[in-house]
Amino acid sequence: MYNLKNIKDEDVKGKRVLLRVDVDVPIKDGKIEDRSRLKAWFPTLELLLTKQAHVFIAGHLGRPQRVDERFSLEPVVHWVKSQLELHNDLKVTDINGFKAWELTGNVFVLENLRFFNEEEKNDIIFSQKLASIAQIYVNDAFASSHRAHASIVGVTKYLPSFAGLRLIEEVGVLSKVLEEPKRPLGVIIGGAKIETKLPLVEKMHRFADYVMVGGEIAENDKILLKVAHERIQGQKSALLVADLNEKNIDITLKSVENFIQISKKCQTIVWNGPMGLIENPAGTNHATLILAKELSEIGKYIIVGGGDTVGFLKESNLLDKFSFVSTGGGAMLEFLAGVKLPGLLVLEK
């Protein structure tokens, strides 16, 4: 689907590189609870440093509306420092109006880009200002590539732009699933605000053999899902919509069992979003945990994605039992629904 320019093929020696990465990770009391997204892009950083580039790491955390220390990237800075096995003191500096931490003379981390409203607006002047930091741009933030923001799309107008190692891998794996999956193929979609995923669910029907929808589903959402399914002409997938239990905080055990039985028929499965509240993974009737354990044991090719889902599987010690863990949530669903991601389009050859 995409023919991306790969940073491996570019000479970056001595050049300043703006590296856009996924740093939107869960942080509690200043400690990072899940480092999966950080570890995903670290090989790209190592490649750039091996090639003697000067790297300016940039990304966003959360949805702050202004400067808010609760969303500072300082915990991420300390993580990068530890991974690079640095023991020097951190130095805070200003780079063209951006607060940044200097880890070494050739590694810097910019503060949360969403402290600037211009980031999400893809503001031209802001994009130019950000681009002026570097000579080359590298996007290794698949989870943000479905957003036309300044650090994803805007900067590419002013810098030679390339895909990072993880971004190349994500696109490669998901493209294969989209174009030539082993069938039957099942898609499991959960989480809150299902109504925002309805357009994607509709698109999935032309790609998947089974679409299973769980999570926080109101009765009107069920109706919308079924009506949309009935309107699809020609070939379409089978649709299963879960029921909520009496407390409306989880799907019923019967619905879980239905999902499991369908999944056992599939050769490829894509899973994004929990089936209900996941704060207590030890619960014996917890639908997401039951589903996760069953899927981890059926021996099929399974891709999982979405911060909540990945975090839950990691906490439940099940993450390494799945075939591929995508760093993207919404980006993964949009990609598989056939939506052209703006962050990828600007990196094509």
Please give a structural write-up.
The protein has 349 residues and is an alpha/beta fold. The protein has two domains: 7-168, Phosphoglycerate kinase, N-terminal domain (Rossmann fold, 3-Layer(aba) Sandwich); 181-336, Phosphoglycerate kinase, N-terminal domain (Rossmann fold), CATH 3.40.50. Helices cover 34% and strands 18% of the residues. It is built from twelve helices and 15 strands. The strands form three sheets. It has a seven-stranded mixed beta sheet with strand order 5-6-7-4-1-8-9. The protein has a six-stranded parallel beta sheet with strand order 12-11-10-13-14-15, with helices on both faces. Helix 8 runs parallel beside helix 9. The model has no long low-confidence stretch (mean pLDDT 92).
Q: Got a strand count? A: 15
When the domains are counted, the total is: 2
What is the correct CATH architecture of the largest domain? 3-Layer(aba) Sandwich
Note the gap between the termini. Answer: 12 Å
Q: Would you give the CATH topology of the largest domain?
A: Rossmann fold
Low-confidence stretches: none
Q: Give the strand order of the largest sheet, numbering strands 1, 2, ... along the chain.
A: 5-6-7-4-1-8-9
Query: How would you state the average pLDDT, rounded?
Result: 92
Q: Helical proportion? A: 25-40%
| Major pleated sheet | 7 strands, mixed
Number of continuous helical runs: 12
The secondary-structure class comes to alpha/beta
